[in-house]
Amino acid sequence: MKKILIIIFLVFSSNATAISKETTFTNEIFEKSQLDGKTVVIHSWNKTCTTCARQVKILDKAKQDFKDVIFLSFEQTEDKDIAKFLSIDYWTTIVVYRNNKEVSRSIGQTNKEKIYSQIN
């Protein structure tokens, strides 16, 4: 009985870390944002990644703090064409574009101050 309860607990606890997020990246939005001179932040994530979940919380707050910045995201394992287009190989990647150029890239960063500095 203990083994069954442990298994049930593990199944439910692993699902609790799942990110409830959707892909917002499209080539059209990305290209238009850059043509408009906007700073674009792109986040690559996976729904079962705990580091990604921490990044999502920071980036959701950053959306409120950086009103003129465009935030786009995509699910790494489902949106492989986007990952290839942006040369992103890993979950937890945050890339910042400004003036049609990549200006910053980090992998696995969960420090709010460093992510905000990357966006600035």
Task: Note down, in words, how this protein is organized.
By secondary structure, this protein is α+β, with helices and mostly antiparallel strands. The chain has a single domain (2-119), classed as Glutaredoxin (3-Layer(aba) Sandwich), CATH 3.40.30.10. The chain is 46% helix and 22% strand. It is built from five helices and four strands, in the order H-H-E-H-E-H-E-E-H. Strands 2-1-3-4 form a four-stranded mixed beta sheet, with helices on both faces. Strand 1, helix 3 and strand 2 (69-75) form a beta-alpha-beta unit. The longest helix is centred in the middle third of the chain and has 16 residues, at 50-65. It is globular, with a radius of gyration of 16 Å. It starts with a helix and ends with a helix. 22% of the residues are buried. Mean pLDDT is 87; it is low at 8-17.
**Unreliable stretches covering 5 or more consecutive residues:** 8-17
Please state the second-level CATH architecture: 3-Layer(aba) Sandwich
CATH third-tier fold name: Glutaredoxin
- The 3D shape can be described as globular
- H-E string: HHEHEHEEH
- Estimate nothing, just give the exact number of structural domains: 1
Strand order in space, largest sheet? 2-1-3-4
What is the CA-based Rg, rounded?
16 Å
Mean pLDDT: 87
Largest β sheet strand count, sense and barrel closure: 4 strands, mixed
How many DSSP helices? Answer: 5
Secondary structure: helix percent: 40-55%
Binned strand content: 15-25%
Q: What's the CATH class label? A: Alpha Beta
The oligomeric status of these chains comes to: single chain
